[in-house]
Amino acid sequence: MIVEVIHPRTGAVVERARVDESALPFTIGRARANGLVLDDPYVDGVHARLVAEPETGALIVEDMGSVNGVVLATGDRAARIRMHSGAELRLGRTTLRFWDPDAPVPPALRLDGGAPTRESGAPRRTAVSLLICALAFGSLGALSWLGTTARSGTNTALAAGLGFAAVAAAWAGIWAIVARVVIHRSRFVTHLTIATATLLAVMLIGTLGEWIEFIWPPGNTWAVIEGAATLGLLTTSVALHLANATTLSSARRWRAGAVASAVVLMLAGLFALADDDAFTDVPAFSESIRPLKPSLLPTVDAEGLREVHRELREEVDEMAK
């Protein structure tokens, strides 16, 4: 196989080493005696080695008891990994990519002008990311426009969309800075996609909850479901951000996401306790009127309404006594 050393900032190949059967076992590390020498302070003297699997002859990467381990593309550490063409590993802060010598390469560029060859899936991923962002901004603007009765509904929708974009961009920018410091690649578009997709999902859950609460006002079942779903989305969002900004393992990323959700839940509980719950004789109904047929709503006739009034009056009289 061919082992490529990937530049942490640009993603370009900075070194290639050919691993033949005669060179096995092939060691990788910071010591100068290795077959592949990595100038990375987070790599051990002899960090890992390549050996052939006795049964199949497949190339195996073995961790030599290193401090930071051999990390898969998923973020998990592994002591022994069977390699295949196109696979990537991370040793310390260095990414290694393995290729079969016969793997196809992109066509040559023309000398009369041609853009540098990019990864085949990169443009498609960027297009999908931008589509998700546009969908999130458009959905928020549409919901704001539908939810207002003011004459300046369009301005309200534009302001909501721009505010949403500013918050998402600021959040993604913070994660991009963290990623630049830790893994030397900002991945701003990826973080922006995670942020907007999370906010879009939260917004859709909230909209669905408003309809459900309008149709069935009594009870808190949906509020519990909505809160659990929101906390799950927050946990997933933090884990995905960490996967694209740090070198943490999968377990640590999910634990960090769970801790973030627990902190948000605790703060929400504190705000709820601090909320002034003074008595008022004004009935409160937090939902907007929805354009639904009466047959779809749980309604009562006039006699039923009088019965409800009678029960409430008796309850108030008992409270007064």
How helix-rich are the residues, as a percent range? Answer: 40-55%
Q: Specify the overall morphology.
A: elongated
* Helix/sheet category: alpha+beta
Strand order, sheet with most strands: 2-1-11-10-7-8
Average pLDDT for all residues: 79
Major sheet: 6 strands, antiparallel
The sequence of SSEs as H and E is EEEEEEEEEEEHHHHHH
Describe this entry's structure for a reader.
With 321 residues, the protein is α+β, with helices and mostly antiparallel strands. The chain has two domains: 2-99, Tumour Suppressor Smad4 (Sandwich); 122-273, no CATH class. It has helices at residues 122-146, 153-182, 188-215, 221-243, 250-274, 302-320, and strands at residues 2-6, 13-18, 26-29, 36-37, 48-52, 59-63, 70-72, 77-78, 80-82, 88-91, 94-99. The longest helix has 30 residues, at 153-182. The model is unreliable at 114-121 (pLDDT under 50).
Question: Gist?
Answer:
By secondary structure, this protein is α+β, with helices and mostly antiparallel strands. Helix content is 47%, strand content 14%.
